[in-house]
Amino acid sequence: MNIYSPEFWARTWRSAGIQSIAFFVIGYIIYGDQPGVGASPEKLNAFYGGDRTRILIASVFLGFGVLNLLWFGAALASALRDAGMGGWAGAATAATGAFGGIVLVNVTVVAALAYSIAGSGGGGLTSGLNDLSWALQVLTSFPAAMVLMAGTFGLWRAQIISTTTYWSIFPAWVLVVIGSTTWARNGLWAADGAYLQFVTPIVFAVMITFFSGLLTMRVSTAEAPERAAVTAG
Q1: pLDDT at 49 (0 to 100)
Q2: For residue 218, what pLDDT is reported?
Q3: Could you tell me if residue 204 is inside a domain?
């Protein structure tokens, strides 16, 4: 495919959601198992000090994940706006921006801990920032759910997905927003518990992959030049 063609770039930015999830998965695999809330100074120093290089490398992949998700948010908003769903388009743009912002703040916190803070001898500061990182992960549930809501409701109202598909994927954003309630001290419903570490990110990843793949497949050789002409005009 010609990289100068409008179709190529239309496919590229619509598939950015899939690329984003790939970067996030690689980043989290490299990042490893972060110490939980209230972890001992020994565990914190072993993770942020001993795995310093690994954490900093992971931060690069996570940053690229955010970058691609923002591109996907713009693609989703564009598709919704073209279908007359301007309200949901605005919601998609705002939600992906908010999600990306919180994730970048979280990445900044853990990267700073690994880069210098954890080794400076400030055990209380290290523990506090580690707990802040978990709190930020809880709060990402709100914009993450809004991204899925914009895709689910917007694409359904635009008749891009069927009513059957709508009801099949409707529970996804509910499962994600429930992650915002995971404030228990320990166990499944803790900020560092299994629900927030596994259920929320898996559901979010599956849905972003679905939306991104759906939009990518809808790009046609006739649609892309038309879109480019409208943009140029």
Answers
A1: 87
A2: 82
A3: yes
Packing angle, helices 141-157 and 163-177, rounded to 10: 170
Query: Which has the closest alpha carbon to 137: 87, 78, 179?
Result: 179
Give the Cα-Cα-Cα angle 185, 143, 158 (nearest 5 degrees): 140
**What residue type is 121 in one-letter code?**
G
127 domain residue, yes or no = yes
Domain assignment present for residue 1? The answer is no
Domain count, the chain: 1
**Cα–Cα distance, 204 to 151 (Å, whole number):** 12
Helices vs strands, H then E, count in the chain: 11, 0
Q: pLDDT tens-digit profile of 80-119?
A: 999 999 999 999 999 999 999 999 999 999 999 999 887 7
pLDDT at 220: 56
- 4 assigned to some structural domain: no
Q: Closest by alpha carbon to 208, among 18, 9, 13, 27?
A: 18
What residues make up the domain containing 203?
11-222
The predicted structure's pLDDT at residue 228: 43
In order of 12, 211, 230, the CA distances from 6 in angstroms are 10, 20, 12
Distance (Å, whole) CA 81 – CA 73? 12
